[in-house]
Amino acid sequence: EVQLVESGGGLVQPGRSLKLSCAASGFTFSNYYMAWVRQAPKKGLEWVATISTSGSRTYYPDSVKGRFTISRDNAKSSLYLQMNSLKSEDTATYYCARVWELGIFDYWGQGVMVTVSS
Amino acid sequence: DTVLTQSPALAVSPGERVSISCRASEGVNSYMHWYQQKPGQQPKLLIYKASNLASGVPARFSGSGSGTDFTLTIDPVEADDTATYFCQQSWNDPTFGGGTKLELK
Asked: What is the full per-residue pLDDT of chain B (105 aa) written as tens digits?
């Protein structure tokens, strides 16, 4: 059974940093692209980052480019999201998702809440 | 960015057929996918590449469309289908529709 378990969320002040983690199990982690998707309270879904199987290629939307960094450790079957210079508009539930074929998010974690507030 | 537009809400009675639409601001070939999100839960993949049923999803769900106009159909609707449904394209950088909240009468 595919499982994705996020951790590392919490309350952080604007301008500070936070690192999220996602522990994967139930599949061969190194064979899949992985991604982060977020959802602001009572809002829709927004793609945040994608990383290739080896970690050599990363992709971001303009809203987080230069502030967020996605990475992975295939030996530990773990995905990470380093978030710097956080803004109030980054407040959201962050989901770790497995990427299947061309950009299909076929499995999602339960999500972790990040609140950016002073 | 490819903008996906969905109607915000629908209300139907159990046993009826419902169609949820998603219109893309530019062509996305068949790279449109649908997700179901129940309150307090993570999204779940229902349909991929416009018309393919994801593993374990009941055959009451179906998808159609290509280019810019896509439809998710549930027939018949059951009480457990109360949820928000999101479309997502992956022809360009991934974007999601705003979601359609399905309520049962």
From this structure: 999 999 889 999 999 999 999 999 999 999 999 999 999 999 999 999 999 999 999 999 999 999 999 999 999 999 999 999 999 999 999 999 999 999 999
A contact set with B (CB within 8 A): 35, 44-47, 50, 59, 61, 95, 100-111
Inter-chain CB proximity B48 and A106 less than 8 Å: yes
Residue closest to A50 by CA, chosen among A62, A63, A36: A36
Distance from CA of A58 to the nearest CA of B (A): 12
The residue of chain A nearest to residue B45, with distances taken between CA atoms, is: A106
User: d(Cα B12, Cα A31) in Å, to the nearest integer?
Assistant: 42
Which residues make Cβ contacts (< 8 Å) with residue A108, sequence separation at least 6?
A: A4, A37, A95, A96, A97, A98, B42, B43, B44
Nearest to B60 by CA among B14, B105, B99, B21: B14
Instruction: With CB atoms and an 8 Å threshold, state whether B96 touches A61.
Output: no
**Rounded distance between C-alpha atoms, residue A111 and residue A95, angstroms:** 4
pLDDT in tens, A45-103: 999 999 999 999 999 999 999 999 999 999 999 999 999 999 999 999 999 999 998 79
Q: Is B85 on the interface with A (CB under 8 A)?
A: no
